[in-house]
Structure formats: C-alpha cells, structure tokens
Amino acid sequence: MKARTRAAATLLTPFFVLFTAVMLIPIGYAVWLSLFTEQQSGLGFGGSETVFTGLGNYTAALGDRVFRDGFLVLLGYCVFYIPLMVGGALALALLLDSALARAKRFFQLALFLPHAVPGIIAAMIWLYLYTPGLSPVVSAMHSGGIGFDFFSPSGALPSIVNIALWEWLGYNMVIFYAALQAIDRSVLEAATVDGAGGWRTAFSIKLPLIRASVLMVVLFTIIGSLQLFTEPLILNTGSGSAVSSSWTPNMYAYTAAFSRNDFGLAAAASVLLALTAALLSFVVTRLTGRKGKNA
Amino acid sequence: MNRSWSRTTLSIAGAATALAVLTACGGSGDDSSSDAGGGKGTAAKPVNITFWGWAKGTKEVVDAYNASQKNIHVTFEETPSGNAGGYAKISNAIKANNAPDLVSVEYPQLPEYVSQGGFQDISKYVTSDVKAKFLPQAIEQTTLGGKNWAIPFDAAPQAFFYRKDLFTKYGVEVPKTWDEFKTAAAKVKKADSKARIGTFFPDDPTTFQAMVWQAGAQWFKAEGTTWKINTTDATTTKVADYWQGLVKDGLVRSDASFSPAWTNSLKTGATIGYLGASWGGGVMKSTLPEQSGKWAVAPIPTWDGKPASGMLGGTTFAVPKNSKKAEAATEFAKWMTTTEDGIKARISSGTSSAFPAALALRPAAKKAFDASFYGGQDIYQVFEAGGSSIKQGWTWGPATGTTNTTLKDQFGKVAGGGATIPGAIKAAHDATVAELTKRGLKVEG
C-alpha cells in the first residue's frame, strides 16, 4: 500500500508541480492583477501608484463596446468556420476510408503537413498570398474577373477562416480517419451484404459510429476559436486595414497590456475570456455526455 | 532497490522542476551580481550592459563601441521596430522586471513609458554640458516634469523622397506646397493609372501627426497640473480634410508602412514617392538597392511655401527602471549620440541616414553617408533645412499608446470608407480624455 502511494506520488508530482507553475500561479497572478489599476497625479510624470479597484477593470472591460464586439467576431467566426472545418475534415476522412482511395498514406501525410507549420509562419505565408501585386493567387483571381480584397474589413473573416482551415483541416481529418479505421469491419461487411452502397454506408453506418470523435473535434474547435489571435494579429500588422488591433478578445487583452500599458484591464479581459471558455466547455461536455447516454 | 529508486527519481524530478521554474522566473538581463553593481566599470572589472534597439546600423555602433574601450561591454539584442512589436516587448519586459539596461524609444512613446513609471530619471547624467550638445527641441522632448528621461539620438525632420526618373518621365514638378502636391498626385495618376505619388499609412499615425505638427497644431499642452487636449482646431481640421480628400480621390495608396504590399509597390514603380523623415533615407536605400541613383530627396511640402517641418519618429535611448547600471548605460548612450566615432560607425554601415540631434556631428554624418543612391545629392543639406524649421511647442501627451492605438484602428477603416480621418481624430481624442481621467489626471478638452 505504502509503495503504491509512493509510486502514485512519484508519477503525479511532476504533473502537479508543472500544473501549479504554468497554470495555477499565472491564473492566480492574472486574477490578482485584474483587481488593481494605476493612478497618477500632477501631469503624470511622477510615476504611478497601484491602487485596488475591486471589479473596476471588469466593469470597464464589459462596458467597452470594442471588447464586447470581439465576442461577436468570434461568434461569426465559429458560425463560418466550424461547419466548413468539420464538414471538410469528415468528407476527406470518408474519402480516404472508402474503398476507392489509393495511396492513402500519401494523402494522409500530405493533408496533415500544413499542421506541422507553426501558426505564425502560416499566417505570414498567407499574408503574402493575400497581398495584391505580390500574390499569384490574387492576380489569378483578378484576371479571372474576381476582385476580392482579402485585406478589406469585410474580407478579413474569410481570409482568417481560410488560414485556419488550411492549418487544421488535415489534423482533424486524421482524428476522423483514425476513428473510421477503428470501426469493426464486420459491421461494414454486414452493411454491404444487406445491400448498402458507399453513400448509405458512410451516412448510416460510419458517421453515427464516430459521433464521439465529431463532438470532440467540435468542442476543441470552439475552445480553440476563442483563442483566435495569431492570424488576425499578423493580418493587422501586415495590412493595417483588415482588422483592428482589438478585433478578438485575446487581441483586446494584448493591446490593452502592451500598447496601452493597462495591465489591470488586460488581466480582467483575459479572466473574462477564460471564464467564457470554461462555461462553454462545461455546456458542450454536458450536452454531449447526455446524448451519449441516451444513444 | 525499488524503494530507493523511486525516492531518487522523486527527488530528481522535484529538483529538476523546481530548477526549471526558478530559472524561468529569473529571466534575463539581471546579471548584476558579477558586475558589483553600477558605475562605469574598469578594464579589470568591466560592466556588462544589455541594449535593445532596431534602428539601422545599431549593431555596427555596438561593435565599434566594444572595440573602442574595455570598461563597458554592450550586448546588443535586435528587436522588431517599435510599431511592429518592439514596444510590446519593452512593456512586457518592464512589467516583468527583466528589461535590458538601455532601450530605444521614439519621442512620441517616451511620455507614456515615463508616466507608467517604466524608466529611470537620468537627470544626474544629463549635465548641462551634455544638453548643450543637442538641438534644443530634442532636449525639450526628452524633458518631462523637469527631469531628463532619455538621451536623444536623431532629430527626424520630415522629408519627401521621390523617384526622380519617373517624375521627369511623367513631367511632374517636385511639389513645394500641399496644393502643388495634390496637383502632382493627380498628374502622376493620370500619367500612369497604376502609379501613385505617395501613401497614407493606416498603421502609423505618427506620420499623420507629423503633418499636423508641421502645420502648427498642438494637440497636447501641459498647463499647471492640467492636460489640455485640442484636436478640433482649424489647423488639424485643414490637414485632416486634405488627407481625407487624397484618400477618397484615390490620389495616394493606402498600405501599411514597410509592409510587403508597400515595398512591392515601390519596387514595381506603383508608388513613386514617400513622405517620411530623415531616417527614411537609409531605409529606402537598403530596401531598394536595385533603384540606386533613381531617388532624390526634397523638403516636405508646406502649407504656405515657407519651410516648416514636424518630427516623425526619431530615436532616444532610455534606461528601464529595473536596471542597476544606469550610469554605464547612459555613458554608452552618450557615446552613440554625441561622438564622431559613434555616428560614423552607424552611418558607414550604409543602411542609416540618421540626422543627429547633436549639432556638431552633422558634418561627420554627412561625410560618412554614401549618397550614390540619391545620385550624389547632398541629402543632409535637405535635412539641415528641415531640422531648423521644426515647429516648436509640440508636446506628446502621456497616453500616446491609447491615442495612437485608437487612431490606428480607425485609420484602418478609412480606405474602405468605414471611417473618416476627422472621425478617427475625434475617436482618438475621446479615448485619450477617458484614459487620462481613468488614471486620475486632470484633463480639459
């Protein structure tokens, strides 16, 4: 028994040490920071004094239209992005899993490859591909009569959804493909014997059987979407026009801290964003959990 | 055996994680223990200082300094330019108490950092003989609340860079006034429907603010203990309406400064002019080496034809609050800004066309600059004229971060018609007043 406790402690300690150091302490520090603000006197050149403001930063963040609009941006992004992402990844996975597919290994790797590119590099590559006068894509579109401006405020959302799809489609496809591979082959054979064609098998047999994976991907994608930061930030500095510096809540926090030097406000905005993410995760897991039991 | 194994592993794992945590918290920049703190150092016991910057030719300056003496050793770390993330990095490091001993900061951003308590008062190192070496406006801009917070480096008068060959080809005269500039802009567009005379930079409000400064506006004024903010004066309105017109009529391009789009348009001759400042001379030269000999520099156009200039950017060097080596850091900063060796090292790099704020260094700077990119033109003479016409009395407010972030966000929507330049100024004004009020400062406007 004692040895067992010790073994458990050995295995768990590194986790809890790291968890405390890189999760709990920073979160605690952010909450602490969010309760304070800086006050100055005279013309403001005598340095500043940190004063307790209670929930002042929270009301300031919630009262700021720019911050609230950030959540609307995220909503629009999710509505646009999640169906495309899940639909696309499912379609690709089903194609790979179908009997018709050749060179499965190759396509698996090729589709996954963009995910190996760090987000910031991906965003910079796409920045070039979006820049008029520089991008072969834009000039091809122009000669084809499509005058789409990726850097206009209305073009920003599609531009960013496109980058995200490029980065994540292959990754989620691999998850779906693995789930499809795990389906008992005898079930599929039975379906074939019963006369189900490729489409029927895909929609009536395969999809219901990998529902758990689909829900997991949706959950992760929603949480990931809340963190939207790198791609719009690169687009902001690279174009100056597509998105504002506080376009998403994460960017709002970044700008508050590092452009406006208001760390209290930034911390409050971050805590609010984290709470939203926690709440959403809770709701989605509860919903999916219940459905799973009923099935 | 089993027991001892697990115990050892446990302690190793514990120690390793603790160590990782400690080193991660310790961060960089603070190696004062080995240097016995402050002072100017000696050859036997040199002081090591760390310096962040992005201005062209900085690495060459640091190398020259390290080679010239043994008392102070400078480690240079290149950061992105302020707007492109350099300031975010500095703010972050100051907050985390691991900022370097010396940072580059432009005049507009200095008051913001000072008001946040991010920098040290270096008045005792900026003695009157040091002050006397600089252009009075540069000292004025770095003196806040009666104390010195930074050593000024360059003066950054505005200038107009243009493609001489294409101006001749299109039959366009170099504009002396803003009216002529508009006419010239229309002429360029007419001669080549793809070409434009210049650019409105939505991402860089300081370019626009320099135009307002040049025209004679004073957005921020300190009176007693009250900040007076005035952005609705006739001068500001005139400049805002003028630029709104240029953007609306498509007479200028709208691209982020130094972005791939902007650079590409210069390379392809789609942009044939640049309303910048003295330091832009080196930037153009290093960005467009293949266009050597095709560029020229003219004084910035003015409203009444008489010389007038604002200041666009311009670097100063400041000591973050956590540094324990302010004396060595300012010593090095003074070397960079006031010695001939310092300026020569920077300009000989071939990438810098800095116009020193230290008056005595200008002949040396001019001599070190290879002007073949400008067909041998004496560009320092243009800067000299611009420098002596910098309008006095402009002050930057203590919340430039808020003012300029708001301006930038609004300017981004101007080209698409989602905002106007006068509207953007109004939004920035309101945001600034709100920010100052939030900080507990008295503000009128």
Automatic annotation (TrEMBL), chain A:
<feature type="domain" description="ABC transmembrane type-1">
    <location>
        <begin position="75"/>
        <end position="284"/>
    </location>
</feature>
<dbReference type="Pfam" id="PF00528">
    <property type="entry name" value="BPD_transp_1"/>
</dbReference>
<feature type="transmembrane region" description="Helical">
    <location>
        <begin position="106"/>
        <end position="129"/>
    </location>
</feature>
<dbReference type="InterPro" id="IPR035906">
    <property type="entry name" value="MetI-like_sf"/>
</dbReference>
<feature type="transmembrane region" description="Helical">
    <location>
        <begin position="12"/>
        <end position="35"/>
    </location>
</feature>
<protein>
    <submittedName>
        <fullName>Sugar ABC transporter permease</fullName>
    </submittedName>
</protein>
<keyword id="KW-0812">Transmembrane</keyword>
<dbReference type="InterPro" id="IPR050809">
    <property type="entry name" value="UgpAE/MalFG_permease"/>
</dbReference>
<keyword id="KW-1003">Cell membrane</keyword>
<keyword id="KW-1133">Transmembrane helix</keyword>
<dbReference type="InterPro" id="IPR000515">
    <property type="entry name" value="MetI-like"/>
</dbReference>
<keyword id="KW-0472">Membrane</keyword>
<comment type="similarity">
    <text>Belongs to the binding-protein-dependent transport system permease family.</text>
</comment>
<feature type="transmembrane region" description="Helical">
    <location>
        <begin position="209"/>
        <end position="229"/>
    </location>
</feature>
<keyword id="KW-0813">Transport</keyword>
<dbReference type="GO" id="GO:0005886">
    <property type="term" value="C:plasma membrane"/>
</dbReference>
<feature type="transmembrane region" description="Helical">
    <location>
        <begin position="263"/>
        <end position="284"/>
    </location>
</feature>
<dbReference type="GO" id="GO:0055085">
    <property type="term" value="P:transmembrane transport"/>
</dbReference>
<feature type="transmembrane region" description="Helical">
    <location>
        <begin position="71"/>
        <end position="94"/>
    </location>
</feature>
Automatic annotation (TrEMBL), chain B:
<dbReference type="InterPro" id="IPR050490">
    <property type="entry name" value="Bact_solute-bd_prot1"/>
</dbReference>
<protein>
    <submittedName>
        <fullName>Sugar ABC transporter substrate-binding protein</fullName>
    </submittedName>
</protein>
<dbReference type="Pfam" id="PF01547">
    <property type="entry name" value="SBP_bac_1"/>
</dbReference>
<keyword id="KW-0472">Membrane</keyword>
<feature type="signal peptide">
    <location>
        <begin position="1"/>
        <end position="20"/>
    </location>
</feature>
<keyword id="KW-0732">Signal</keyword>
<keyword id="KW-0564">Palmitate</keyword>
<keyword id="KW-1003">Cell membrane</keyword>
<keyword id="KW-0449">Lipoprotein</keyword>
<dbReference type="InterPro" id="IPR006059">
    <property type="entry name" value="SBP"/>
</dbReference>
